Amino acid sequence: MNPVVDLILNHRSIRKFTSERVPQVQLDAILAAAQSASSSSFLQVTTILRVTDPALRAHLAVLAGEQPYVAEAAEFLVFCVDYHRHRAVAPDAMTGFTEQLLIGAIDGAIMAQNALLAAQSMGLGGVYIGGLRNHPDQVVEALALPQDVFPLFGLCLGHPAQVPERKPRLPRDLVVYENRYPERLDEALLTRYDAQMLAYYQHRSSNQKHQGWSGQIRRILGKESRPFMLASLQKQGFLLK
């Protein structure tokens, strides 16, 4: 349709990178693109930590679930929701509200997507690292995050050393509805998608597995995920009210 849409539709998560560095001019453009994202009420509640210390990178790779590309990628950015600087500007600011965390998570994700799209437009690749939330207290300590700051996720960036297959998405009719939510799920569409995902997982070039999408959802949502998260957020001053 056009280069921007083509770039978006061609998205792949890159987990293997060459040793080539990202030129400073490209990194500057990527960060400028991130900061150009929309911001709710122009609060600008996202902070990006560029992690360059190799030892710190290696430590974060372990905390994120032994993901080696956290240490290997040319660049690793950590996106944080941040009301610390707001309290510096307005010491009497009222923080700790649930809505404020939602604002921070949404704004941070929009900024990160801008950054990744900018990087991809330059021939770079990347992958998001939600695994930082496996050990949030230790990540907070490692990055010396003050009160009212919380790490949302990381983003690896670099020159791709792989071209993975594109993972099929849900059929649009299971994602986009008009006016009202449907009374029931289209089971036939879901069954066909499960078959499509099963074929994808069985035939992709790496990490093959015998699983459809429904099975994956049952496995992931069949147990509590990160039960420590509420306490970690509250420790940093979030979700207090």
TrEMBL record:
InterPro entries listed in its UniProt record: Flavin_OxRdtase_Frp, Nitroreductase, Nitroreductase-like
The Nitroreductase domain, residue ranges: 8-159
Species this protein is from: Aeromonas schubertii
Similarity field: Belongs to the flavin oxidoreductase frp family.
Gene3D superfamilies: NADH Oxidase
Keyword Flavoprotein: yes
PANTHER family membership: OXYGEN-INSENSITIVE NADPH NITROREDUCTASE
Protein name: Oxygen-insensitive NADPH nitroreductase
Lineage: Bacteria, Pseudomonadati, Pseudomonadota, Gammaproteobacteria, Aeromonadales
Keywords for the protein's UniProt record, in alphabetical order: Flavoprotein, FMN, NADP, Oxidoreductase
Gene: nfsA
